[in-house]
Amino acid sequence: MADLTAFQSWITTCATAIADRADDLTELDRAIGDADHGSNMKRGMSACAQLAEQEDFSSIDAYLKKVGMTLVSTVGGASGPLYGTFFLRLAGPLAASEQVGAHEFGQALRAGVEGIVARGKAELGDKTMYDALSPALDAFEEAAGAGSDLADALQAAARAAAEGRDATEPMVARKGRASYLGERSVGHQDPGATSATLLVEAAAQTLT
Amino acid sequence: MADLTAFQSWITTCATAIADRADDLTELDRAIGDADHGSNMKRGMSACAQLAEQEDFSSIDAYLKKVGMTLVSTVGGASGPLYGTFFLRLAGPLAASEQVGAHEFGQALRAGVEGIVARGKAELGDKTMYDALSPALDAFEEAAGAGSDLADALQAAARAAAEGRDATEPMVARKGRASYLGERSVGHQDPGATSATLLVEAAAQTLT
Amino acid sequence: MKKLLNDPADVVVEALAGMAAAHPDHLRVDLDHKLVLRADAPVSGKVALVSGGGSGHEPLHGGFVGRGMLDAACAGEVFTSPVPDQILAATTAVDGGAGVLHIVKNYTGDVMNFEMAAELAGESGIQVEAVVTDDDVAVQDSLYTAGRRGVGVTVLLEKIVGAAAEEGQDLAACAELARRVNAGGRSMGIALTSCTVPAAGKPTFELAEDEMEIGIGIHGEPGRSTEKLAPAQEVAARLVEPVLADLSVERGESVIAFVNGMGGTPLLELYLMYGEVKRLLDEAGVTVARSLVGNYITSLEMAGCSVTLLRADEEMVRLWDAPVDTPGLRWGG
Amino acid sequence: MKKLLNDPADVVVEALAGMAAAHPDHLRVDLDHKLVLRADAPVSGKVALVSGGGSGHEPLHGGFVGRGMLDAACAGEVFTSPVPDQILAATTAVDGGAGVLHIVKNYTGDVMNFEMAAELAGESGIQVEAVVTDDDVAVQDSLYTAGRRGVGVTVLLEKIVGAAAEEGQDLAACAELARRVNAGGRSMGIALTSCTVPAAGKPTFELAEDEMEIGIGIHGEPGRSTEKLAPAQEVAARLVEPVLADLSVERGESVIAFVNGMGGTPLLELYLMYGEVKRLLDEAGVTVARSLVGNYITSLEMAGCSVTLLRADEEMVRLWDAPVDTPGLRWGG
Ligand SMILES: Nc1ncnc2c1ncn2[C@@H]1O[C@H](COP(=O)(O)OP(=O)(O)O)[C@@H](O)[C@H]1O
Ligand SMILES: Nc1ncnc2c1ncn2[C@@H]1O[C@H](COP(=O)(O)OP(=O)(O)O)[C@@H](O)[C@H]1O
Ligand SMILES: [Mg+2]
Ligand SMILES: [Mg+2]
Ligand SMILES: [Mg+2]
Ligand SMILES: [Mg+2]
User: Fold this and answer.
1) Which residue among B84, B134, B145, C33 is least enclosed by CB atoms within 10 Å?
2) In this structure, are residues C105 and C96 in contact, taking their beta carbons and an 8 Å threshold?
């Protein structure tokens, strides 16, 4: 079961991971995009990491909503509205929860990922963050359905995200800026799938 | 003694030499100027080299005047008016001559070099074409005074010009674009002194 | 990376501050929201035009704020679309009661952020219409891509629709005109060198000394193909032909012709390119009603250019000629 | 070398042809003499302004031809002064009977070629006055050099004196005003990268990835010193301080402040630099009466900028504000 403190440490852990990997993310985006994904995500996540210091949050969902709004208003680009929507929707199913277990988190994760699809219209195989998040969601649900607790289900989700991320390399991009490259996008890992995997991995480390 | 044909071959020989060395001249100008001396001189001299084909000249002085005017109107930059004036003034003492000997050419050369000084106000040691032309004039006059014929006097002039050119390398430029460099112009041979030496060397090859 | 800046993270805000200082009578700058606003905004009863996008394309969009063009521009980080808060703040600041037209270049990020802002503005009772520009023929417009990119036509659209708004056309008419301008315009670009995003610190792409990138985007997104550098004459043909073909311009038709510099190409070369473009249009029997040559929608210091042709009807030409008074485009009384 | 051109030998003529095509109503171009002329030249009874110099500094000078500024510009080869024939042809073409003012940047070649042309024009009965600009404080003005170079103040002078001529001031008054503007203006420039002369085919100078050249000339002539690249804030101080010192501007005085791009530096950075310059002027208690920010006197694709300050009296500010209608500067009715 994860409480507000755990969720806050999810975000700070993720912010650290993103900051550490910002240059790599930008480098991936340089190859098939416009060389800003790392700085976009770093700017947004570091703003989120400071939220807990700036404000006392009364609930998990209020905190996650604030994270979503912060991402929307600091990241920009394609990833800002997408990750922002993810957290805004994630908050919904957790309203009023003080402790979140595998079942509830699964519902929240599904809402978050569906929010990304609603905003970005990505399909599997389009070479986007969805190609990491969708298998992560599936793996999480499967594990949780089989009785895993939150921590174990997130471990499974993180492994699936990483596989999904790696699988973006041979794909032809069909959404976002990389789609302009057509066939030339093949051979490069998607930056958004990479940052999404960091997000799920950070969850696996903190939401226990 | 040199006739009109000899003067015309002076100019075509010089044009060839300048064209062959155009990149070197530009390279010298790149170091202490604005990287155009080679293309300026090549443009001007190749226009001059075509004059004899385009027009029948009745006299040496008419031909040299046309060379001067052609240089003025095709070279541009500092070297255009200077070399143009050189040939315009060179023509003066040769008016009405059909055959030019050492004595007459010495007078013409003096007029030409003085024309450059009148236009450009250069003094010896300023690191300009004058640093090649002034010793060339001195050597010519000394040889001719000692009884050398035109060919021999020009050989002496060409040697002196080359020495004068080489001597520009350690100089601090005080005229033209290179003067902006001050001390940083030291260690580079002056482009104009280099093209001037080609001019005198071509004379030594052709005016016999 | 060789740039005139302090901390790369501050480049946009510091440039906006400099812009405010340079145009105190014409512009107001909101540094918190990174907005450039007409000094006299909101203009009561006038449809307001709001555009914006990533920075690094200057003078687009901030340089086109002023009488006869935009009411506000939202500056994102370099090559990163602005966020909904900024766009909402701009929309609220310039609404003069006649509604606000959002002019959005077709990039996933821009479209999503403007959409979110429009939803929020709608909730607060401001009438918003959005038009998305997508004129770049380098990119195939298919179900399986994010569609064509918005590039050069955006400049022409902001001028023409800005004039319509200035003369009192209503929101529906402005939006309809804007869609008509976008539909009638196509562009194609080429790069000789890459740009360098300040925060990234190194060139976005590599090109060998004898290569050019055909179909480049204004964010240094790779284009159709990397090819051997060619003479201006051939480059012009590689740009004009696909544009004419995609627009299916016929002999006798009339266009506004726009040769745009990507930022690092001297005006000398841009005029030379315009000469080549004009020659090709003459050969195709296409009349140039008006022309524009210069650096208007740039990609930082990238060397290269783009050609935009806009099939121009009389109304568009009339509005093109109407007075405009912005830092980037200025003419008329 | 990566440029949009055909044969490097033809770049100037082809660019002029493109310019003529782009501005058919405003300009006339004489391709034989490589001149840009006001479409309505000669303007009877008006003092005519003729400038010129090597090409590669666009929009200077051809882009400043038009009502309220120059009557003609003579385009030399790239970085090579025009020849007397061109200058004479321009002088003859624009003389409206009130005499012609030659505006010459102080470079040996330019001065000599304009001098020869003025002698020839004088022989054919045209009244010519010449003013030589020499505002570059990077270069020591001493008996032992060719004097300071003419750079940024040339733009301001052409605008201000162009307005004076347009309002009917006579040749002596225009020449006197021009000398006053030149005397009141000083500039200093910096380069981050070299330019490449098309005919030379490679960069004029080398700078390491972390170096800048302080005191650069507009032909890529090396400057005072090569130094480590510094933040914009320091660069601004390195430019503004020597200019203020040389002009001995006092607290409370008023200037026209001009931040000029060398061609390859994005507007984003130029505005950022203007912000820094403005801050330094504020600190020095110097008022900015008017400002200009952009690429106006360039050095092909060189990255860098220059700062020009002109101690501006009321007359100069009034003439600065007067209408101007050229491709490069345009405002007023
Ligand atoms: N329509 C979309 N749906 C889902 N993800 C998308 C979509 N478009 C882009 N992305 C993701 O966004 C990432 C790029 O984000 P970023 O570089 O921050 O934005 P931008 O492309 O605007 O510069 C891509 O790698 C991709 O994973
Ligand atoms: N005042 C002067 N007197 C004599 N020679 C000069 C003077 N100024 C410049 N020069 C010569 O001209 C040469 C440069 O010519 P060029 O490069 O064609 O002209 P620019 O300097 O205008 O580009 C210099 O190398 C120098 O020899
Ligand atoms: Mg990106
Ligand atoms: Mg030179
Ligand atoms: Mg981006
Ligand atoms: Mg020169």
Assistant:
1) B145
2) no
For A89-125, give one letter per residue: b (16+ CB within 10 A) or e. Answer: bbbebbeebeebebebbbbbbbbbbebbbebbebeee
Return the pLDDT at C223.
79
Q: Does residue D328 surpass a pLDDT of 70?
A: yes
Residue B120: pLDDT above 70?
yes
CB contact under 8 A, D200 and B30: yes
CB of B79 closer than 6 angstroms to any ligand 2 atom: yes
Among partner residues D209, D268, D333, which is closest to C333 by beta-carbon distance?
D333
Tell whether ligand 1 has an atom less than 6 A from the beta carbon of residue A33: yes
Write out pLDDT tens, residues D98-140: 999 999 999 999 999 999 999 999 999 999 999 999 999 998 7
Give all strands of the β-sheet with C287-294 in edge-to-edge order.
C225-228, C211-214, C185-191, C304-311, C254-261, C287-294
For the segment B41-78, what is each residue's pLDDT rounded down to a tens digit? 999 999 999 999 999 999 999 999 999 999 999 999 99
pLDDT digits (tens, 9 = 90+) for D23-52: 999 999 999 999 999 999 999 999 999 999
Question: pTM of the entire structure?
Answer: 0.94
Residue B124, both tokens: 């010896």
Say which CATH topology domain B4-206 has.
1.25.40
| Residue C104 identity (one-letter amino acid) | V
Residue B54, Cβ density class (10 Å: 0-12 exposed, 13-18 middle, ≥19 buried): exposed
Q: Where are the alpha helices (DSSP H) in C95-185?
A: 108-123, 153-166, 171-183
Name the band, by pLDDT with cuts 50, 70 and 90, for residue D142: low
Q: With a cut of 70, list the residues of chain A below it in pLDDT.
A: none
D56 touches chain C (CB under 8 A): yes
- C26 is a catalytic site residue: no
Q: Which two tokens stand for residue C117?
A: 């802002």
User: Does residue C59 have a cis peptide bond before it, meaning omega lies within 30 degrees of 0?
Assistant: yes
Nearest to A193 by CA among A87, A37, A39: A37
Q: Which of B36, B43, B82 faces D197 most closely, judged by CB atoms?
A: B36
Q: Is the peptide bond before D59 cis (omega within 30 degrees of 0)?
A: yes
pLDDT in tens, C51-110: 999 999 999 999 999 999 999 999 999 999 999 999 999 999 999 999 999 999 999 999
Query: Which of left, alpha, beta for D181 (phi over 0: left; psi -120 to 50: alpha)?
Result: alpha
| Orientation angle between helical segments B102-120 and B79-91, nearest 10 degrees | 140
Inter-residue contact C171 to C195 (CB < 8 Å) = no
Distance (Å, whole) CA D73 – CA D328:
13
Helices (DSSP H) in C124-187: which residue ranges? Answer: 153-166, 171-183
Other beta carbons within 10 angstroms of residue C39's beta carbon come to 13
Name every chain C residue with its beta carbon within 8 A of the beta carbon of D263: 264, 266
CB B13 within 8 A of CB B202: yes
E strand or H helix that includes residue A205: helix A191-206
D57 is catalytic: yes
How far is C-alpha D88 from the geometric centre of its chain's CA atoms?
Answer: 20
Contact C144/A at CB under 8 A: yes
Mean pLDDT per 10-residue interval, chain C, length 333 residues: 96 98 96 98 98 98 98 96 97 98 97 96 96 92 78 98 98 98 98 94 92 94 89 98 95 97 98 98 98 98 98 97 97 86
Chain A residue numbers with beta carbons less than 8 Å from the beta carbon of C199 are 26, 36, 39
**Count of all residues that appear for chain B in the document:** 208
* pLDDT on residue D157: 98
Q: How far apart are CA B150 and CA B2, in angstroms?
A: 8
CA distance C141 to C186: 12
